[in-house]
Task: inverse folding
């Protein structure tokens, strides 16, 4: 899913002052890379959660099986100066939010959750892209 | 104590098998049962007597049925064209219901089997956006008594 989002951003993201990197947001000396490189968008590895949606009594040897709801979450980070927001911050927000459209096939729902936090003088904007699908066991 | 604790994949797994009456060449093992209820509902004849302060009752005939909810499997619901001709497996659950076909059925309850004759009724397939998978209730209206073996 990270690949699809990076590919979507490569084709659709063009906001002056901001850029997308294919690097993972790994820690360097205890500090995530995105805290060092302002206005660079980092996309993390996907996290997947599966939960039972429908349990069945005869799941293994009669051709049927339970149904599982799978949620894949990809998180992206971008850091800006906290005192003065960059000019295109809102444009960057609205464009990056649309990364949930990176993939469509087989997914029943796609959502984006945006949150912000402060790290010293930096504003960390975090995007959680959630993709929901149903799996048959 | 010997509680019946069905384990999927185990010998005591809950199974519902359907065959066209007197024809066991191609049965349907109904897959993906969400739940199953064996109903044995007796009618009751009630009367009053002048010498009693409470009504008197006696059980008479019963209405029997099997009620389940299933996740629809295309092959067993709509039938399998490659199954034995004239079998339940070829017809599928939907066809058995629409054609009012008389069936035999077997329900595995632990080490016992409850069986009987009846008809498939009560289908109401549904899917929703919250749970985008087709599910349906299914009722087997039992014609006569259960047999426990």
Result:
């Amino acid at each position: 899913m990270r690949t699809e989002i990076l590919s979507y951003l490569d084709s659709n993201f063009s906001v002056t002052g901001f850029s997308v990197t294919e690097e993972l947001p790994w820690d360097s000396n205890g500090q995530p890379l995105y805290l060092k490189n302002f206005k660079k968008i980092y996309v993390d590895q996907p996290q997947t959660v599966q939960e039972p949606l429908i349990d069945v009594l005869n799941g293994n040897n009669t051709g049927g099986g339970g149904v599982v709801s799978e949620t894949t979450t990809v998180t992206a980070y971008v850091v800006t100066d906290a005192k003065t927001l960059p000019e295109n911050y809102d444009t960057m927000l609205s464009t990056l939010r649309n990364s949930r459209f990176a993939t469509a096939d087989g997914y029943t729902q796609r959502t984006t959750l945006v949150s912000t936090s402060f790290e010293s003088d930096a504003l960390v904007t975090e995007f959680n892209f959630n993709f929901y699908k149903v799996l048959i066991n | 104590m010997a509680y019946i604790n069905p384990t999927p994949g185990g010998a005591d797994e809950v199974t519902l098998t359907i065959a066209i009456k007197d024809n066991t060449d191609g049965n349907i093992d109904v897959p993906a049962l969400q739940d199953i209820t064996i109903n044995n509902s007796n009618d009751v004849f009630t009367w009053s007597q002048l010498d009693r302060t409470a009504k008197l009752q006696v059980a008479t005939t019963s209405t029997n049925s099997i009620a389940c909810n299933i996740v629809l499997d295309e092959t067993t619901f709509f039938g399998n064209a490659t199954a034995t001709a004239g079998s339940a497996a070829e017809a599928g659950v939907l066809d058995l219901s629409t054609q009012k076909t008389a069936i035999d059925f077997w329900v595995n309850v632990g080490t016992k089997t409850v069986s009987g004759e009846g008809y498939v009724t009560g289908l109401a397939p549904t899917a929703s956006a919250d749970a985008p998978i087709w599910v349906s209730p299914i009722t087997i209206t039992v014609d006569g008594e259960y047999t426990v073996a």
